[in-house]
């Protein structure tokens, strides 16, 4: 990977990211060591399970089910990181009315170096799937996912970024058809820096898109989310609910944009970008943007940054809860808005547990 | 059980407690009355260890230990319970989660085993029922959207579960309707009227003292106890007001 060209902070859309660690990671050899226990979520209806180690399928630990490995149609556009993903990846293609047997779980283990992987999810009319991706290990995991949802299709895509160090970059392109629904919820609760890019386009009438998550950062960590939801058809609804938590000298940045094209009447868009500073030296950037070319639309956006409520901290202390646990409990409550968007109980509980573990509560 | 000696405390550099001295023995209920702004809530907060309330001199000994030397959560684990005049709302945290976290934190601090989920729910349901707080309310976020009276009853549910040695109850009776006052008063007697426990009852009204009969009544004015007596002092206050007595 000698051709690593990275954007500088002066490039629009990259000003809050710090990519300076990447060249060194790219030069490293992955160690190949995989933890014995992988973070599978126990659930009533199990579906395909895939393990990627350094971007390569570990066939002996995987059960592909309806998922294929092969050449992937993904459009990296001109994105500096997405360009690197190559063409061989995983594909979830479902025909009309189809669904996998149960929850699709994909664990990405990175063992010190850099790995790149594209993916393609294509759901035909009224097909539905629920996918959980979990990132662990250290190094740089770089992904590009292309999503196409036909009429009435439903996709839930939930991600846990739990890598202990390094970088995780995810790039999503989604096209959402008539009455189709895409819900993406992401939890960043590891030790790595993360960068998320999302481009969702609602091309069919009455489509629904939700893109949100909880970003937890401490030390000098940086999480950076850059999203654009574009409404091109009538009666679409979109939600972007982000909760950022930054401690020490960490930085969380969320730039979320809603575009309403001419003719996309009755659009209902909502952005809620809230930040919680656990220390005065941490930084939270929240940038909601609206670009509206239709007249009959409802778009609400709010961005706030605050600190933990002192009265609530004392109230908890007066009932015997030690400061560390009290902070964790209140911070958990703060990010719950984002995690609670996850529909399946087992998945939601697992995400809450990961958040709580990161926060050091019980 | 509790010995407060010559306590001076300030908030934002403003002196509020001015040499307050008070002793509370096991099995006793002490009522504290006094005009608005006298420092009654301040006394509660200083005992609870609220940040921003600075003790400039004096001492507080609780069960032989220096209370002022302990962190607020350690005071709770040692057996102190503070009933808030204005209970705090905590969005995103349910009463059940709050109570279970509190109970287990105190148990761990005392080296006891955590309570099981089943035992906890049974206990919570029983305390809730005794105080007219339904399980539905217990599942709601802590005090969020509760009426004034509901918040006070919720404080008593917490006290019942935590089962403290010493309760400092700051105007637990204000905001309660007549029936709720009876329920809460009975609750205080049931939970706290025991040989090894004690109560500091901050109130403005005789009504609560008719139910929870105090052994001693004190008048707090301008940051110190200016008068102490038996239950008859409260009746005298009700007749004559603070002016004559605290002057
Ligand atoms: N943060 C603060 N800064 C300055 N003064 C304060 C602060 N908080 C409280 N005080 C003052 O301290 C005094 C005592 O207040 P406190 O709440 O203890 O009174 P109280 O006896 O409980 O009154 P009430 O019967 O109205 O509840 C009041 O004069 C109040 O204005
Ligand atoms: Mg008061």
Ligand identities: adenosine-5'-triphosphate, magnesium ion
Q: Report strand % of chain B.
A: 25-35%
Number of domains of chain A: 1
Write down the oligomeric state. heterodimer
Main interface: chain pair and counts:
A-B, 24 and 31 residues
- Total DSSP E strands of chain B: 12
Sequence of secondary-structure elements of chain B: EEEHEEHEEHHHEHEHEHEEH
Whole-number average pLDDT of chain B? 94
Folded structure, characterized:
- The complex is a heterodimer of chains A (362) and B (247).
- By secondary structure, chain A is mainly β.
- Helix content of chain A is 13%, strand content 48%.
- Chain A is globular, with a radius of gyration of 20 Å.
- The relative contact order of chain A is 0.11.
- The mean pLDDT of chain A is 94.
- Chain A contains 4 helices and 17 strands.
- With 247 residues, chain B is α/β, with parallel strands linked by helices.
- Chain B has one domain: Rossmann fold (3-Layer(aba) Sandwich).
- Chain B contains 9 helices and 12 strands.
- In chain B, the strands form 3 sheets. In chain B, strands 6-9-10-3-11-12 form a 6-stranded mixed beta sheet, sandwiched between helices. In chain B, strands 2-1-4-5 form a 4-stranded antiparallel beta sheet.
- Chain B is globular.
- The chains are: A mainly beta (362), B alpha/beta (247).
- The structure holds adenosine-5'-triphosphate and magnesium ion.
- The site of adenosine-5'-triphosphate (ATP) has 13 residues of chain B, from strand 2 and helix 1.
Question: Which keywords apply here?
Answer:
heterodimer, A: 362 residues, 17-stranded mixed beta sheet, 13% helix, globular, B: 247 residues, Rossmann fold, six-stranded mixed beta sheet, four-stranded antiparallel beta sheet, 9 helices, 40% helix, 29% strand, binds adenosine-5'-triphosphate, binds magnesium ion
């Amino acid at each position: 990977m000698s051709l690593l060209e990275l954007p500088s902070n002066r490039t629009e859309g990259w000003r809050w990211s710090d990519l300076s660690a990447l060249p060194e990671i790219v030069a490293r050899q992955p160690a190949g060591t995989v933890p014995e226990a992988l973070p599978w979520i126990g659930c009533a209806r199990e579906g395909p399970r895939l393990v990627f180690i350094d971007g390569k399928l570990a066939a002996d630990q995987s059960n592909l089910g309806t998922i294929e490995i092969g050449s992937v149609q993904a459009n990296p556009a001109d994105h500096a990181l997405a360009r690197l993903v190559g063409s061989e990846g995983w594909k979830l293609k479902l025909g009309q009315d189809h669904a996998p047997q149960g929850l699709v779980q994909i664990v990405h283990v990175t063992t010190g170096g850099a790995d790149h992987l594209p993916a393609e999810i294509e759901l035909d009319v009224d097909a539905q799937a629920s996918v959980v991706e979990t990132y662990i290990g250290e190094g740089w995991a770089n992904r590009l996912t292309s999503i196409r949802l036909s009429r009435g299709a439903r996709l839930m895509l939930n991600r846990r970024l739990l890598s202990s160090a390094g970088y995780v970059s995810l790039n999503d392109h989604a096209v959402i058809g008539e009455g189709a629904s895409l819900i993406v919820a992401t939890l960043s609760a590891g030790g790595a820096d993360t960068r998320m890019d999302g481009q969702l386009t609602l091309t069919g009438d009455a489509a629904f898109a939700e893109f949100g998550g909880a970003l937890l950062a401490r030390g000098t960590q940086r999480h950076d989310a850059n999203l654009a939801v574009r409404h091109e058809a009538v009666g679409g609804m979109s939600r972007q609910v982000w909760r950022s938590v930054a401690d020490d000298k960490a930085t969380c940045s969320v730039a979320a944009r809603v575009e309403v094209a001419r003719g996309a009447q009755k659009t209902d868009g909502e952005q809620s970008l809230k930040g919680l500073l656990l220390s005065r030296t941490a930084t939270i950037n929240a940038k909601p943007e609206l670009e509206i070319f239709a007249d009959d639309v409802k778009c609400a956006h709010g961005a706030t940054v605050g600190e933990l409520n002192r009265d609530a901290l004392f109230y908890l202390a007066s009932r015997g809860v030690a400061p560390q646990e009290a902070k964790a409990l209140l911070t958990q409550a703060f990010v719950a808005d984002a995690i609670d968007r996850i529909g399946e109980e087992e998945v939601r509980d697992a995400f809450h547990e990961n958040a709580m573990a990161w926060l050091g509560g019980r | 059980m509790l010995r407060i000696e010559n306590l001076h405390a300030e908030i934002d550099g403003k002196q509020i407690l001015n040499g307050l001295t008070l002793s509370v023995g096991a099995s006793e209920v002490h009522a504290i009355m006094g005009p608005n702004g006298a420092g009654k809530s301040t006394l509660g907060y200083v005992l609870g260890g609220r940040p921003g309330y600075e003790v400039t001199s004096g001492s507080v000994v609780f069960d032989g230990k220096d209370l002022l030397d302990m962190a607020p959560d350690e005071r709770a684990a040692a057996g102190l319970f503070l009933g808030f005049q204005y209970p705090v709302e905590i969005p995103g945290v349910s009463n059940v989660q709050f109570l279970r976290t509190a109970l287990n934190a105190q148990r761990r601090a005392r080296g006891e085993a955590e309570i099981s989920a089943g035992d906890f729910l049974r206990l919570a349901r029983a305390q809730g029922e005794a105080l007219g707080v339904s399980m539905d309310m217990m599942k709601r976020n802590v005090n969020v959207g509760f009426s004034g009276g509901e918040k006070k009853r919720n404080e008593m549910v917490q006290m019942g579960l935590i089962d403290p040695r010493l309760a400092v109850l700051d105007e637990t009776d204000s905001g309660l309707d007549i029936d709720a006052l009876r329920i809460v008063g009975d609750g205080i007697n049931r939970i706290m009227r025991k040989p090894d426990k004690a109560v500091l009852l901050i109130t403005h009204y005789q009504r609560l003292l008719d139910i929870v009969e105090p052994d001693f009544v004190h008048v707090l004015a301008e940051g110190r106890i200016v008068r102490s007596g038996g239950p008859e002092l409260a009746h005298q206050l009700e007749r004559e007001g603070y002016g004559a007595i605290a002057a």
